[in-house]
Specification:
Largest sheet: 5 strands, mixed
Distance between the termini: 24 Å
Radius of gyration: 13 Å
Shape: globular
Number of strands: 5
Number of helices: 4
Oligomer: single chain
Strand order of the largest sheet: 1-2-5-3-4
Low-confidence stretches: none
Length: about 140
């Protein structure tokens, strides 16, 4: 077990259980401070290697995961690991796919699916979850 994020760090979302998860745009520089211990990259193409453990969900920009069963497995793992590790969820810009995945983590954490997008927009980024189909994906997410 390692330390988790600092709740005041940029991009860090506190879930209702107290778990901390950092959302990030991969096109931006890595924030100062400790690196993640586990990252989930949400990209249409395989991401470059990173010096920490990372999982890739093939998820094209403005769309949904190509393999929803794989996405569910990886997001569950991220939620579980966030209890004691520095977990990062990241896509290109850090809003649409990242916000959608963070909203799914919120559902896993007990936020009702029909309120998870609102929760992430309030607590992480007001522009999170960019498309109607991403919103629908979260509303139907059962974890």
């Amino acid at each position: 077990m390692t330390e988790t994020w600092n709740a005041t760090d940029s991009g860090v979302l506190r879930l209702p259980s107290g778990r901390l998860v950092r959302g990030r745009g991969l096109r931006r520089p890595l924030p100062a401070g400790p690196p993640p211990t586990y990252a989930v990259h949400l990209l249409g193409k395989r991401p470059p290697e990173v010096p920490w453990e990372a999982e890739w969900i093939r998820w094209p920009d403005f769309r949904l995961p190509a393999d929803r069963a794989h996405a569910l497995t990886v997001l569950r793992e991220a939620w579980e690991r966030a209890a004691g590790e520095r977990v990062e969820i990241a896509c290109g810009g850090g809003r649409g796919r990242t916000g959608t995945a963070l909203a799914c983590l919120a559902v896993l954490d007990g936020v009702p699916a029909d309120r998870a997008v609102e929760f992430v927009r309030r607590e992480y980024d007001r522009h999170a979850v960019e498309t109607p189909w991403q919103k629908r994906y979260v509303r139907r997410f059962t974890g």
